[in-house]
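haha ok so turns out i had the wrong file open the whole time. this is the CORRECT one, sorry everyone. sequence first:
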Amino acid sequence: MQSAPTFKLVLIGESGVGKTSLFMRVKENRFCSEAALGLEFCTADATVDGVRIKLALWDTAGVERFRTLTRNYYRHCHCALLVCSLDDKSSLDNLHRWNQDVDFYCKDCDDAGPTRPQQDPSPRTTAV
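then structure:
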């Protein structure tokens, strides 16, 4: 049996917007209110259009002191999920800065390597 292709997904955004809560929902099937200290990693299996894949999910700290450390984790990512809080307008206003980081540090994202399945140009949302 061929192993499932792995796709690296990073959660990005300001501190306190819910990145860790989303991460813990995938990792342990629960939501949490604690903030992340540093970086965490987990994997999750998913099926997209009948193809089994593995997501390598990274919870990156959004606080400014971790920004240079976080930039290393953009490397070789296939997806960056920008997260903001509906009750914190500044987190929405700062998404453009996080998006600029993704554009700058994910230059290799267009060439995901041999494990990437054939792409369908039509956009879609897939539940994990």
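The CA atoms of residues 76 and 108 lie 6 Å apart.
again sry for the mixup
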